[in-house]
């Protein structure tokens, strides 16, 4: 036995995984009512939205999205949306596409409901920011598949673990860009508000947030894109939608079905990306910034 082997035998293992499993087991045993409530809430959000999106004929939904694209961006984008989603509607995966959209909207909404207030809080508190940033680093660098393990353990298989794993995975950009947008607000503007006697809450709501809105909307865009990528992975745990289409094609080596599912994901991602980007560009602060740049 060499010296390196003897040192390895003498040093104890750091069993982080065992400690994490112990915590998960304890929480599952003592907080089951909380997890049941979370599962019921997610189901209550996802199922009606899926029904709403899949109830109208596919052509009606395609026309609605095309109209939104025309109104928010341009007639060219509206036409592109019509052609892209029209192609998806012509494939036998329209219901799965709308199910994926519902999962993305619910997961993104929940992620933003947590991310934006957290970003505001850490933007106003540097000590909290120093504590939260390593947590965000961990959340962003953890492999996406790892989030599915505790989600399955707590909630079984289905849409609920997929949505909740997606919420955790997609949150960090929303937090970071909210904080960044608020910290980038010109200090002189804030001092002007303070000079006029405005309270910190009024300065936050009427000055900082409107000026930071374009950056926050960029965070919204990133959250939606990450949610879409994670929802596809969540097809592995029975979340349904296009993730299930792609995973089934992978398991059965169905090249055509996999390509159809992938194309549907790409088209849905482009539509959501451009729509959210257009909403951010239509805010008053974004218009003012463009006017200043032109001047």
Give the SSE map.
Layout: H1 3-10, H2 16-30, H3 32-54, H4 58-72, H5 75-89, H6 94-124, H7 126-141, H8 144-155, H9 159-183, H10 187-195, H11 200-233, H12 241-252, H13 255-281, H14 284-294
Helix pairs in contact: 3-6, 3-9, 4-5, 4-13, 5-13, 6-7, 6-9, 6-11, 6-12, 7-9, 8-9, 9-11, 10-11, 11-13, 12-13
Look at the structure and give the mean pLDDT: 81
Largest sheet: none
Helix share, percent: over 70%
Q: Tell me the span between the first and last alpha carbons.
A: 76 Å
Low-confidence stretches: none
- The H/E string reads HHHHHHHHHHHHHH
What percent of residues are in strands?
under 5%
Strands, count: 0
Quickly give the structural class: mainly alpha
Q: Helix segment count?
A: 14
Radius of gyration: 23 Å
Form type: flat
Could you walk me through the main structural features you see in this protein, from its secondary elements to its overall organization?
The protein is 86% helix and 0% strand. The chain has 295 residues and is an all-alpha fold. Helix 12 (241-252) runs antiparallel to helix 13. It is flat and about 65 Å long. It starts with a helix and ends with a helix.
Notable traits:
295 residues; mainly alpha; flat
What's the short story on this structure?
This protein has about 300 residues and is mainly α. It contains 14 helices and no strands.
């Amino acid at each position: 036995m060499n010296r390196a082997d003897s040192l390895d035998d003498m040093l104890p293992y750091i069993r982080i995984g065992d400690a994490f499993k112990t915590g998960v087991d304890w929480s599952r045993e003592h907080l089951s009512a909380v997890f049941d409530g979370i599962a019921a809430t997610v189901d209550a959000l996802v199922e009606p939205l899926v029904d709403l999106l899949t109830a109208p004929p596919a052509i009606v939904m395609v026309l609605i999205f095309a109209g939104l694209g025309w109104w928010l961006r341009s007639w060219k984008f509206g036409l592109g949306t019509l052609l892209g989603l029209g192609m998806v509607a012509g494939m036998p995966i329209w219901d799965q596409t709308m199910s994926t959209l519902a999962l993305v909207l619910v997961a993104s909404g929940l992620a933003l409901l947590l991310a934006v207030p957290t970003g505001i809080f850490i933007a106003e508190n540097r000590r909290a920011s120093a504590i939260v940033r390593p947590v965000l680093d961990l959340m962003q660098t953890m492999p996406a598949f790892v989030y599915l393990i505790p989600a399955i353990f707590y909630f079984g298989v289905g849409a609920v673990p997929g949505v909740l794993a997606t919420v955790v995975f997609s949150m960090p950009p929303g937090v970071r860009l909210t904080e960044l947008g608020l910290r980038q607000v010109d200090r002189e503007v804030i001092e002007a508000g303070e000079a006029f006697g405005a309270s910190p809450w009024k300065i936050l709501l009427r000055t900082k947030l409107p000026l930071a809105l374009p950056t926050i909307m960029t965070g919204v865009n990133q959250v939606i894109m990450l949610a879409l990528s994670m929802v596809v992975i969540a097809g592995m745990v029975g979340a349904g939608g296009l993730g299930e289409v792609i995973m089934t094609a992978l398991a059965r080596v169905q090249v055509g079905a996999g390509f159809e599912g992938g194309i549907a994901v790409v088209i849905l991602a482009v539509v959501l990306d451009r729509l959210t980007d257009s909403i951010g560009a239509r805010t008053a602060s974004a218009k003012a910034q463009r006017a200043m740049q032109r001047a």
